[in-house]
Specification:
The protein has 118 residues and is an all-alpha fold. It has one domain. It is built from five helices and no strands. The two termini are 17 Å apart. The relative contact order is 0.14.
Amino acid sequence: PPSPRSEEFCDAATKTHINDNPAYYYNYAFATVFKFQLHDYIARKILHQPPQSCNYADNKEVGAWLNNILKKGGTEDWRKVLKEATGEDISTRAMMDYFKPLMSWLEEQNKGRQIGWE
């Protein structure tokens, strides 16, 4: 029966696909962090634009940079490739920075409201 839920419950993990094949979802989550990091580098270092509003369609410099990374395939450890390409180890920094304006807006909109469980 329905009952009050607190933050100690992880209802999202009860999704059958997560239980049946967790490695797939770990890979998906990891890839999301990885692509935010690549996108951040492209936006800030190559295009000199904010990551939230940049466009690199048909940009030859971006294409060459991505090609240089992807052509290595599995011949080098991904950690080394990422570090050489972006100067950073794997990190959620780029994803957190990307959503920082939204987070600030949400905090302002929810000022004074009770957020959380119970």
